[in-house]
């Protein structure tokens, strides 16, 4: 088998939190008096990392509200909704399939590590992963350093690793550590955005089994 290790992104790849993310940012726009909303489709066109750049595309004015203030508000609104979100269809099935084939699985995310552990725990799937690695803050800047540190400490061969994500930043992270990447087009960025990376883009997690096994 070509891949001995799967690195999973979490939000938008295994955890379907796109709708609650749209709702959270629209509540932010309302609370801060912007008098507008963004649609689900528009969200998936403009979402990006680092998140501060996405906030600029949404239209937040940093002369009125600091990024720190907005980040805290987002976490507040998002956290109130996170229990209503679910795993993507097929997520548990593909995790089980890879586990049964002896593939090591790890989560690397820009989600703050305590919130990430909580979300994974909602579904009782901790046992599928050797490590669940998040960030130390809520600013969602980059997962590159987390990935580089993990690869260095664990000593895995990048040629035996597949990174599975839903954003251009997941592709950038995979490139930074020298591993292969597949992007799922059902997450925080739409397929047209993802295809610009040149990475393989699939429609759903069900397609991943055939790609890996």
How many helices in DSSP terms?
10
**Largest sheet properties:** 6 strands, parallel
Helix percentage = 40-55%
Count all strands and give the number.
Answer: 8
> What's the average pLDDT?
95
| N-to-C CA distance | 7 Å
Overall structural class, as computed from helix and strand content, comes to alpha/beta
Beta-strand portion reads: 15-25%
Q: Tell me the series of helices and strands, N- to C-terminal.
A: EEHHHHEHEHEHEHEHEH
- What is the 3D form? globular
Radius of gyration: 17 Å
Spatial arrangement of strands, main beta sheet:
5-4-1-6-7-8
> Low-confidence spans: pLDDT under 50, at least 5 residues?
none
Short account of what is shown:
The protein has 213 residues and is of the alpha/beta class.
């Amino acid at each position: 088998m070509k891949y001995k290790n799967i690195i999973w992104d979490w939000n938008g790849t295994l955890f379907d939190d796109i709708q609650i993310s749209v709702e959270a940012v629209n509540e932010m726009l309302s609370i801060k008096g912007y008098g507008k909303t963004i649609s689900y489709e528009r969200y998936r066109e403009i979402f990006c990392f680092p998140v501060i750049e996405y906030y600029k595309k949404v239209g937040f004015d940093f002369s009125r509200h600091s990024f720190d203030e907005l980040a805290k508000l987002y976490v507040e609104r998002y956290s109130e909704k996170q229990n209503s979100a679910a795993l993507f269809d097929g997520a548990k099935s593909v995790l089980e399939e890879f586990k049964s084939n002896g593939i090591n699985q790890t989560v690397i995310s820009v989600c703050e590590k305590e919130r990430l552990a909580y979300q994974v725990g909602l579904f009782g799937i901790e046992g599928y992963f050797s490590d669940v690695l998040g960030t130390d803050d809520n600013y969602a800047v980059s997962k590159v350093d987390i990935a580089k540190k993990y690869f260095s400490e664990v000593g895995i061969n990048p040629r035996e690793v597949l990174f599975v994500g839903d954003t251009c930043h997941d592709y950038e992270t995979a490139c930074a550590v020298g591993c292969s990447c597949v992007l799922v087009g059902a997450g925080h960025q739409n397929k047209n955005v993802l295809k610009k990376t040149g990475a393989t883009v699939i429609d759903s997690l069900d397609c991943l089994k055939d790609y890996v096994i």
